[in-house]
Specification:
The complex is a heterodimer. Chain A is an alpha/beta fold. Chain A is 36% helix and 19% strand. Chain A is built from 13 helices and 15 strands. In chain A, helix 2 packs parallel to helix 8, helix 9 packs across helix 13 and helix 10 crosses helix 11. Chain A is globular and about 55 Å long. By secondary structure, chain B is of the alpha/beta class. Chain B is built from eleven helices and seven strands. Chain B has a five-stranded parallel β-sheet with strand order 1-2-3-7-6, sandwiched between helices. In chain B, helix 1 crosses helix 11, helix 4 packs across helix 11 and helix 5 runs parallel beside helix 6. Chain B starts with a helix and ends in a 16-residue tail after the last helix. Classes of the chains: A alpha/beta, B alpha/beta. At the A-B interface, helix 4, helix 5 and helix 6 of A face helix 5 and helix 6 of B.
Chain lengths: 351, 310
C-alpha cells in the first residue's frame, strides 16, 4: 500500500526521560498495539465497557486498534454497527445513561459530522442540562488519515469544531505511552470524551508498560526543554516539532521548548503559560486548519493570560484554510511538518 | 390521565402571568397514551419523552413539585433550573432526561435498551415521539438497530397530525411511517386509537411482554390530536393553519372526558369518587405551585456547576 512509503515505522523520538516511564529499556510496541492493549484491558477489567463501530471486528480492525478484540471478549461486547452514525451515537449516549461505558470507533473523523447531533446536542449537554442528575460516560474515537490521496472528505482534522463545545473533553495523544494511558483514562471518565488519533502516529513504536495505567486528562507535558521559544505541538506534529527543535539547536543554536498538550479540552493552560513566561515566544503547531481552530484558541489564551510574557508575535503553523487536495504534489504542498515548524520557530525567535 | 390534564390546564391558565419563563408544549388531548403505556411499566423501566414531555414524566412517576419548580426555573426543580420545561429528569423513576431535538431521544431510548440487554436486566425502555420525529433518520436507524439486536424497546409514536404548523400530508407520503410490511418476528406493530387508554394499555402490555421475553422491539402508532397549539397557551396559538372543524371534531373525542363518561356509565366510577379525585388533584397542584413559587432561584454562582462530573 502506498501508505507504507509515506512514513515508515519508526521508534518515537528520545523524549525527556521523565516523560517516558519505563526508561529507555522498556517494552516497545506500536501505537496500534498500545490502543488495542488499552481496550482489551478495559474490557477485561470493567464489565460495563463495550466497543462498537463500523468495522471494529473486520480484519483491519481500525488500523489495528481494535483487531482481535471480538475474539478475546466476544461479539456481544465488541460489535460491528450499521452505517447509521447519528442514531448509533445516540445509542451510545443511551447505553451510557443505562449504566454502560461505550467506546464508539469511527475510522475517519469526517463521519463524526454525522454524529454531531448526538455529540454536541446530547452527550455534551446531558450532565449540565439536568443539573447533574445524569451523566454520559462514553468515548468517541476517530483517526485522521493523510497521504495516499485521501482527499477532502477522508482526512479532515476537525478538532477545532469539537474544541468549541462545552461539555466535551477532547484528547489528541502523540505517543504510544499516552495512547494507552489516555484511552484508559477516557474510558474511566464519567463524561463524554472524544479521542482524535492520527494515522502518522500509528507508524510509531514507543515504550509502553504492560500493566494498566492512566494518563490524566487535562495535563500536558514538556517533551523537550528549551530557553528560546515555546512550541505547543498537537498530535503527530509533536514528533515533527521535536525533530525541528533538535535540528535548529544544532544548526542555529536556537533552543525550543516542546510542549505536548495531550488534552485540548480541558487544556493545561498553566503549563503553556509557565513555559511562555520563560521563553517569551510561542509557536503553535496543529494538524488542523488555522482559522478558528485549536492553534487560534491556544494563541488567544496566551494573548489573554500571558501577554506580558510575549516578546514577539505568536506564530501558528497549521494547514492552509483549504479542503485537502488528493493529488500527490498538491497534498505535499498542503500539509505542514518539520520544515514549516522550523521556519515558525525561527520567525518567533527573531521576531 | 385526569391528573396530567389538570396539571396541564393549570400551567395553561397561569402561563401568561410570565412566572414560568420557559417554553411549554402542552400535552392536552394526548393523555391516554402516556397513561396507558406507563400503566404497564415498573419504576426501573426507562421512558424517554420529548419536548412535549410533561405527560410522560408524570405518568412514569416523576415528582410533580420538582416539575413545576423546574417550569418556574427554581433551584428545587428536577433539573435545578438548568433544563426548563423541555428537559425533565427523575432518575429514580426511569426518566433519564429528554431531548428537545426532534428525533434525538429515539436512539437514546434505544441505547438504554441495549444497556439493559447487556446487563441482563429485566427492564424495558420506552420511547415516546411524535409523527414529526418519524420524519427524522434517527427513527429508521434506531428501529433497524433494535431489530438487529432484538432490544427490549417499545417505540410509541404519538401521531397528532401536526409538527409545529406542518401537517402530516405536507411531510409524509401516505402511510409510510407505519411499516405494515415489517416481519412481525422482528418488530411487533400496532396501530391504534391513541385516545382510548384501554386500547393503548392493551397494546403496550403486548409490546412490553414481548420485550421482557427477549423477543425484541415493538412499534405502536397511536392516533391522537394536539388540542392546543405547538407551544405556549391557548391565547398564543397561531390561527389559520388548521381547520377549526378538525380541532372541534377531536375535542369531541377528548380522551379524558370520553373515558370518564365511559367509567361513569359503566358504573365503574361513582360521581362522589370522581369529586374526591378532582379535589385531591387540585390540592396537589396547589401545593406544587406554592412550592415552586416559594422555592429559591439558582444564583449566578451556580452557573459553572455541573459541566463535568467528577
Amino acid at each position: 500500500m502506498p501508505w507504507s512509503r509515506i512514513k515508515p515505522d519508526t521508534n518515537e523520538p528520545d523524549f525527556l526521560s521523565d516523560a517516558m516511564p519505563g526508561g529507555p529499556d522498556g517494552r516497545r510496541i506500536t501505537y496500534a498495539e498500545a490502543v488495542n492493549e488499552a481496550l482489551s484491558q478495559a474490557l477485561a477489567l470493567d464489565p460495563r465497557v463495550f466497543v462498537m463501530g463500523q468495522g471494529v471486528d473486520d480484519p483491519s480492525g481500525m488500523f489495528g486498534a481494535t483487531r482481535g478484540l471480538h475474539l478475546r471478549h466476544g461479539r456481544e461486547r465488541v460489535f460491528d454497527t450499521p452505517l447509521a452514525e447519528t442514531a448509533l451515537s445516540g445509542v451510545a449516549v443511551g447505553a451510557a445513561l443505562g449504566g454502560m461505558r461505550p467506546v464508539y470507533f469511527h475510522n475517519r473523523p469526517d463521519f463524526l459530522l454525522l454524529a454531531m447531533d448526538q455529540l454536541v446536542n446530547h452527550a455534551a449537554k446531558w450532565h449540565y442540562m439536568f443539573g447533574g442528575a445524569a451523566c454520559v460516560p462514553l468515548v468517541f474515537w476517530a483517526c485522521i488519515g493523510r497521504g495516499w490521496g485521501s482527499a477532502a472528505q477522508h482526512s479532515q482534522a476537525l478538532q477545532g469544531l469539537f474544541n468549541h463545545v462545552p461539555g466535551l473533553k477532547l484528547v489528541m495523544p502523540a505517543t504510544c505511552f499516552d495512547a494507552k494511558g489516555l484511552m484508559l483514562a477516557a474510558i474511566a471518565d464519567d463524561n463524554p470524551v472524544l479521542i482524535i488519533d492520527h494515522r502518522m502516529n500509528f507508524r510509531q513504536r514507543g515504550i509502553v508498560p504492560e500493566t494498566p495505567y492512566t494518563v490524566p486528562l487535562g495535563r500536558g507535558v514538556v517533551r523537550r526543554r528549551g530557553r528560546d521559544v515555546t512550541v505547543v505541538a498537537v498530535s503527530h506534529l509533536l514528533a515533527e516539532a521535536f525533530a525541528a527543535a533538535q535540528e535548529l539547536a544544532a544548526e542555529e543554536g536556537v533552543e525550543a521548548e516542546i510542549i505536548d498538550p495531550r488534552t485540548l479540552r480541558p487544556l493545561d493552560e498553566e503549563l503553556i503559560l509557565a513555559s511562555v513566561a520563560r521563553t517569551g515566544r510561542l509557536v503553535v503547531a496543529d494538524t488542523g486548519w488555522k482559522t478558528g481552530g485549536v492553534a487560534a484558541e491556544i494563541a488567544a489564551m496566551v494573548a489573554e493570560k500571558g501577554f506580558d510574557s510575549l516578546r514577539a508575535p505568536v506564530v501558528r503553523v497549521c494547514n492552509p484554510d483549504l479542503p485537502t487536495p488528493s493529488g500527490y504534489t498538491l497534498e505535499r504542498a498542503y500539509y505542514v511538518g518539520k520544515d514549516e515548524i522550523k521556519a515558525g520557530i525561527l520567525k518567533a525567535a527573531r521576531g | 390521565m385526569l391528573r396530567i390534564r389538570r396539571v396541564q390546564e393549570r400551567i395553561e391558565s397561569e402561563y401568561m402571568g410570565d412566572e414560568m419563563k420557559t417554553p411549554v408544549h402542552l400535552y392536552i388531548g394526548q393523555e391516554a397514551i402516556a397513561s396507558g403505556v406507563c400503566a404497564v411499566l415498573r419504576d426501573e423501566d426507562a421512558v424517554n419523552g420529548n419536548h412535549r414531555g410533561h405527560g410522560h414524566y408524570l405518568a412514569k412517576g416523576g415528582d410533580l413539585k420538582a416539575m413545576i419548580a423546574e417550569l418556574f426555573c427554581r433551584s428545587t426543580g428536577c433539573s435545578k433550573g438548568f433544563g426548563g420545561s423541555m428537559h425533565l429528569v427523575d432518575t429514580a423513576h426511569g426518566n433519564m432526561g429528554t431531548s428537545a431535538i426532534v428525533g434525538g431521544g429515539i436512539p437514546i431510548g434505544t441505547g438504554q435498551a441495549l444497556a439493559f440487554q447487556m446487563r441482563r436486566l429485566d427492564r424495558v425502555s420506552v420511547v415516546f415521539f411524535g409523527d414529526g420525529a418519524a420524519d427524522e433518520g434517527t427513527f429508521y436507524e434506531s428501529v433497524n438497530f433494535a431489530m438487529l439486536k432484538r432490544l427490549p424497546v417499545v417505540y410509541v409514536m404519538e401521531n397528532n397530525g401536526w409538527a409545529v404548523c406542518s401537517s402530516t400530508a405536507s411531510r409524509q407520503c401516505a402511510e409510510n411511517v407505519f411499516h405494515r410490511g415489517a416481519d412481525p418476528e422482528l418488530l411487533f406493530t400496532a396501530r391504534i386509537d391513541g385516545n382510548d387508554p384501554e386500547l393503548v394499555r392493551a397494546a403496550a402490555e403486548k409490546a412490553v411482554a414481548r420485550a421482557r421475553a427477549g423477543l425484541g422491539p415493538s412499534f405502536i402508532e397511536c392516533a391522537t390530536y394536539r388540542i392546543l397549539g405547538h407551544a405556549g397557551c391557548l391565547q398564543q396559538d397561531p390561527k389559520g393553519y388548521r381547520d377549526p372543524a378538525e380541532v372541534e371534531a377531536w375535542r369531541e373525542r377528548c380522551p379524558v372526558r370520553t373515558y370518564r363518561d365511559r367509567l361513569l356509565e359503566g358504573g365503574l366510577l361513582d360521581p362522589s369518587a370522581l369529586d374526591r379525585m378532582e379535589a385531591e388533584i387540585a390540592a396537589e397542584i396547589d401545593a406544587a405551585f406554592a412550592f415552586a413559587r416559594t422555592s429559591p432561584l439558582p444564583t449566578a454562582d451556580d452557573l459553572h456547576t455541573n459541566l463535568f462530573r467528577g
